[in-house]
Task: structure prediction
Amino acid sequence: MMEWVNRFANTKAILSLKDGFVLTMPITLIGSIFMLIGNFPVPGWENFMARIFGEGWQQPLNQVTGATFDIIALVAVFGIAYYWAKHSHVDAVPAGLLALVSFLIITDSFVALPEEIMNAIGNEGVALQTVSGVIPKSWTGGQGMVTAILVGFLVGAIYSWFIRRKITIKMPESVPEGVSNAFSALIPGIVIVTLFLLLYILCDLLAGKTLTAIIYQILQIPMQNLSDSLGGIIAIMALISLFWLFGLHGPNIVMGVMAPILTANVLANQKIVDAGGTLIASGANANAAIVGPQMVDIYCKFGGAGLTLGLLIAVFIAGRSKQLRTLSKMSLVPGLFNINEPVIFGLPIVMNPFLAIPFIVIPVIAAVLTYLSIKIGFIAPFVSTQIPWTTPPLISGFLLSGWQGALLQLVILAISIAIYLPFVKLQDRQFYDMEESDRA
Result:
């Protein structure tokens, strides 16, 4: 099983998806800082800032968040194609640029005007229906994520195939390397651009829509709905823990695939808020996605995958063996910053029958509690705000969801301690007996 999973995790597609999507993290974190300033979870914050900076104080902050979150599909399509080419050991920058161009070819280059505006600017009863020469941010943000992934894969594969087989324009050795590389990309570039031009024409003739819009309707919406279910988040958390039990980096493998979809979920929420709507998580009028990357990072694996911060505290409560207590002391500070590799490999948790059950079950319980907390309105549905994953628990919960978020983390931590406790006693007894035997 480990051999099969390793092969899957190291395929070019998964590596390119994981590495390419990582490129979006700096801009989303930067955007989150400004969004957090504009929506700090403290009562009266907005009125306080308005008194100092005036009524329109949030507009410049929204300009920053719009310039970061609304272009993540563009960053992702560049990054995925770039890393596909890089993992194929060819010059990667042209692949990223061609992917960016290809994405824009198959995406709307116009914006439809609302009916009231159309009527207002109409000329003798004929209203202007669209404004051309613009790129709608809805497609360059969350709604374009699945298209970005597919385009990145396709462009990266085609470009790398041409370059590796040397189907390029060859320049004399005296030509500078930068110029030579540019001409090397010419033949694959023409092929790639022509392919996406034909796709644009075909989709326009058959469906009257761009390929990005078709993919969004056929693939992305169903994928988001599936990931946004209680079963979806339970499967995500169980798989993360299961992979770790076999010594594989669960978050990298699972979230490498799921992070773009979950990010699209919260960007859809942000779009509703930006339009002046209210997020509703339950009932007949529900319009909010519930599962986002924040649920995974902030509520289901704070302290590290498996919520091992609860394990460390359980050791301090009941542990007697020198090995377990020493390891827990060494691992506590990294654990507070959500780094738990010392526990995963040092205890170890990998292939450990004593701790396998709580390691899988506790994150699933955390997922259920967080899901239900949003459903009943205890914490608000997630929007674009991202908290750096190394932020200590309670602080991260407060910054993301106010005091309710910190309280939810505290409850999850208490549950994790209670569940880990009997399993820690079993593990501790084994270590303690071994130490006593060695001393004898």
Q: What stands out?
A: Residues 235 and 369 are 15 Å apart (CA to CA). The radius of gyration is 25 Å. The chain has a mean pLDDT of 87.
